[in-house]
Each structure stands twice: as C-alpha cells, then as structure tokens.
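SAMPLE LOG
Freezer: B-3
Tube label: C17
Construct: single chain, 460 aa
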Amino acid sequence: MDFISLANAAARRATSRREDVLGVAATPEQIRAHLRARYDFARPVPLEALIRDVDDLLTRWTEHATHPRHLGLFRPAPDPLCVVADALAAVHDPNLATWDFAPAANEIERWVLDALAARFGLPPGGLHHFTSGGQEANHTAVIAALTHRFPGYGASGARALAGQPVIYLSAEGHASFDKIAHATGLGRAALRKVAVDASLRLSIADLERQIAADRRAGHLPFLVIGTAGTTAAGAIDPLAQLAALAAAERLWFHVDAAWGGAAVVSERWRPALAGIERADSITCDAHKWLSVGVGAGMIFVRHPGAVEQAFGVETAYVPAQARDGRVYPFMTSLQWSRRFIGLKLFLVLAAHGWDRLAARIDHQVGVADRLRAQLAAHGFSIVNDTPLPLVCFRHPRLPDAAAYDRICARLRLDQTAWISRTVLDGRMPALRACVTSYETELDDVDAVVQAIVDALPVDR
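STRUCTURE (predicted):
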C-alpha cells in the first residue's frame, strides 16, 4: 500500500462519520498483550498490515465521540475537514514558534483568532493564541494576570510579594485551576471556591464576602474567574455582574468559556454570554463545540503588554524579531515549538462560514430541548438550569449513585448511547447528557430516552 492509498483510505474514513459502535470496554492487559505479540520493534512490520492493525485497534478500543449518540464530556464529532487540516499540517510541518519560520501559518492563525475575538466583543489589538487545550489557556491567563497585577512576580516569584495572591472561582468551576495554582507557585490554598446559587451560578454575595475577608487578612486578591458553561451542569456565571465587580475591586477578570464560548457564533445564543466582552482574558476550546478535533484550545487576552511581559525572552539562536507587526509566539506564550493547530478551525470557518456554523449550534440546542421534553414526559426531573445543550436529570426510581451508574453501563454495553453520571453542588447524583455533535438528530435522543426508560428498575 503506498502513501496515496493510505491518504485515500483516511479520507474515506473521515467522510463516514456515523460510527456503528460507541467503543468496546477493554482492560490494560488485553491491549498490552496485543502489542506485545506483534510489536517488539526488532523487525519491521509490513506497512499495509501495520496500518490495518492500528486502525482496528482504534476502532475496537476507543470511545467514539463521533457517534451521534455520544452525549458525553464536550467531545463533538470533528468536521471531515479537520482530517485534511491535520494532513496538510503534517505534510508542511510548519513550526509556529516564530513568524519567520512559518509566515503563512502564523498569519492564518492570527486571522482566525482576531475574527473570533471580534465575535466575543473584544477590541482590536489584543494578543491571542491557539493552545493545546483549556488547561494551557487558563494557565496562560493566570500568568498574565499575575504579571499584570504584580510587577515583581516575573523576576522574583510569589515569595517576593507582600501577601498571598488569591484567585476566586465558582465551586462548580473547572479543576484545572487547582493544578494551575500549584504550578504557578501560588499553592492550592490560594484558590477560593465561591458558593453557587440554586442555578449553580457563582454567588456574587459570597464572592464579595470572601474578597473583603481576604483583604482584611492581608491577602492579595488579583483574579476572578467566571465560567461560561460549567462542565457538570452547563451553568453560566453572571458575567456582567462579575465584570463590574472585578473593575470595582481592581481584579483581572477571566472567563473560562472553554465549552460555552462557542455560543458567540450564534446570534440567537450570543446574548447568553452577555458580559464576556468585558473580560481581560477568555478561554475557548474549538474542539469542545465548534466541530474541530482535539486539541485546539484558544486564549484571548485584551492586554498585549501583560502577555509580552509574562512570556518574553531573549535568545541568540532564533532570528531577530522584526518590529513590523509580526507576532512571535515563542515570545508571547507558554509554548515554544508549536504545531499548526489553527488550520482546523480556519478550514471549517472558511468552508462553512459563520451562518452554517451558527446553524449547527442552534440545531444542537434544539435537539437538547427535545431531550428535556422527552425526559419530562417520562417522569424525569431536569435538575440544571442552562440555555446550552447540556441536560442533567433524575428519576425517583433511581435512589443512589450506583443506580445511576447501572443506567450508564447498560446503555454503553448495549451500544445505545454514551451518557455519564455527575453530582451537582455536592448533592444527589444525576444523569448527564450533552449534545455537541452536529450529527445528533431528534430521533437519536428519542432512542436514548426510550433506552433509559427501559433500563429503569421496576417500580415495586
């Protein structure tokens, strides 16, 4: 098999998106035994057999988010154009560390990022980057905020500061910030988990109380994080109120919109994120709800000076940086050598346009509305409050976490659907289903609801 044939085979796979299976359970030993029996790397494996075997491994032992009934953790079916994008990026292998290494690739990424920044309502002139994912994007925001607020942090670290820097995050916010607080040297104790209201949105009253208490204790509040689409329940924090409070308290305002940020492409749903335009920085992952494969995170920063100060370095082995509008990502981001991540989103946007991408978002929200209605008709309670297509639900015949887990396992074993069990605000468990694929249709959720109903324990 030659490489042209391999490329054609990959293209055929890319255009047949509706997988027949959601993925088969496996044990580590099963996969390791398979590899041990075939790949000692002492002798070459015929190319055709090699490719066929790897494809079979990935088909059998992968959780297929491309399945239209995969209603999981923000993993959309990628547009087939992403396969083309990854192939082109691999063929040309541009290194976007500096503008001079990859002029076209750098400018394509700038063009896409500036266009999306405008959809968020950010003013021109910010500094934006593609990242490996939301973790790196959020990490970038924290470093930029620290550098902006504490000029001595970059040179001397947190120990040089007069007190403990403090970050504020909803109790429903993403756990990446625990790791970031650790990695930046602030320590996990620097992260304040703010209480949430009945809709699982950050409580402004509790935030104000914690900020005041920290100031009295001599701590240094510097960053407040609003979440636009929490992982468990899709809750959107009160972004406009957070922006006003952050301005009054002189705090950096970051919005973690890793999933929900994609709503800005839709004129119908953009108002759900009102206030995001006032953010100092925004995280958004194209691979969570923009039909793009992993990883394709993005960080948008309003203040270019903070980013340049945070990540600027001097080195003799990289070409001198011209001052003519070129952006040098190794000088303005955590990464140094970097892949051409943004090509996937560029091709999707260029081929489909904003309107078609917005139609996909609108369609998925409509499918989730159908899911809510069908569940309610069968006696389920919807227990989260969000305009986004994430549905959390409970049933009186499911008494505990084990009962919810059995429903999930039954659906996966039957290859009917992939849903998960979650816990909201530390209370009772709930089932969770999220529509992120443009291929999920009304009949898919109808079939999922019927399968869940059939799996309920018998009422005695």
